[in-house]
Amino acid sequence: MPPSPAVPFDPAMHLTPEEGKQYWDRYVTGDWWGLRTLLHNWGVDFNLDYFSEMAGNISGGKDNFSGYAKGFGQSWAYTDQALFGIDLDFQKMIGWEGGSFQAYFTKRTGDNLSAQVNPNTLQLIQEVYGRGQTWRITDLWFKQTLFNDLLELKLGLMNMSQEFGGFYAFPFENLTFTSGITGNVAGYSMFTWPVSQWGTDLQWNATKTLSFRIGAFAFNDYWISSNYYLRLDNPGGTSGAVIPFEIDWKPKLHICGKDLPGLWVLGAFGNTNHEETSAAAKAS
User: Which CATH class for the 46-282 domain?
Assistant: First the structure.
């Protein structure tokens, strides 16, 4: 049977026509008259996602449009993100065991309420606004699992908030409570979604609940500049590397006859860059 709405979809699943209809009917565009299930079973999955956030200021703050402090709030802002992507399962396509590929492109538009009412907020009110209102290559990587999924190796353009220091769910609009906390606070040391960098990520699944992972990413602050939003090359100015390490533990707590899943993460990272962030990147 297809997964329930609360369970993430596994692209490796093989769906029968009936299972495909039950699953894909929960999506806006449905099963495409059976084509979506057929493509999935061939190893091809398309992704189209739209996400928006609207926020308003009830009172206080500074109105940057008129230039004076207001005693009551009338400001509001709307921002959004569109994602276009494709997942390829090489095992289904050509019999390449453990091989997969992902390409995701994002487009952000809209306005930032923080800039209107208080430009000095610690974190963005609308988390989806960050890193420029532009197109970006957010993911473009190849993944290979080895030794019955004991090792997972990933190479390509990746964003570190997906690989390290990320939450599996982030139900809040404020940036404080979203994925990639390290990059959100230290934004010029570790770049997070939707910015990607060339890098590699190696994960060792020691047990079903315990894993160790280490990565290495080229540090180049021009990646956050809009000048490099859709480029595949490595722009000049690489000044070091970001090397994160993480231990993930996923225990289950048995309460009232149910196994409740948990996630404990311990990690650290280093950045070998010793140069000042460029003006071009800061202006993006």
Answer: mainly beta
